[in-house]
Specification:
Helix content: over 70%
Subcellular location: Nucleus
Distance between the termini: 72 Å
Low-confidence stretches: 1-10
GO biological process, one term: positive regulation of DNA-templated transcription
Strand content: under 5%
Largest sheet: none
Keywords: DNA-binding, Nucleus, Transcription, Transcription regulation
Pfam family, one: bZIP_1
Radius of gyration: 44 Å
Mean pLDDT: 81
Main location: nucleus
Order of helices and strands: HHH
């Protein structure tokens, strides 16, 4: 019989050592179980965070797409407005010219003519009641 076997076989019979060994085993099992639960909890938290990252990235992409679409619509409307303003200026110039001709005809003929005044906003389109403000936004401002 070896020395190690003699010591362990001698302590096996002693109730004090058996109780200490049982306590150690129970504590060791309890610690392992606690560590396992802690790892599972940590993994679940990590999984939750990763899911949240995916959801936030998806939401960010949706917002960026909406900003791009809105910016495109704004650019189209702004282009149309520029064309309409140019047409309005051309028509205002024509109206002023026609009114000038009517005034000359009125003076020459002696007949009073009803020449309507050109409304002020038509003469000064850049002073509209609600001036347009450019929208300075793009989807790039949401990218990290």
């Amino acid at each position: 019989m070896s020395f190690v076997h003699q010591i362990s076989s001698g302590s096996e019979g002693d109730p004090q050592y058996v109780m200490v060994d049982d306590k150690k085993k129970r504590r060791m099992i309890s610690n392992r179980e606690s560590a396992r639960r802690s790892r599972m909890k940590k993994q679940q938290h990590l999984d939750d965070l990763l899911n949240q990252v995916v959801q936030l990235q998806k939401k960010n992409n949706e917002i960026a797409n909406r900003v791009n679409a809105t910016t495109q619509v704004y650019n189209n409307v702004e282009s149309e407005n520029k064309i309409l303003r140019a047409q309005m200026m051309e028509l205002t110039d024509r109206l002023q010219s026609l009114n000038s001709v009517l005034r000359i005809v009125e003076e020459v003929s002696g007949f009073a003519m009803d020449i309507p005044e050109i409304p002020d906003p038509l003469l000064k389109p850049w002073q509209l009641p609600c001036p347009s403000q450019p929208i300075m936004a793009s989807a790039d401002m949401f990218q990290c």
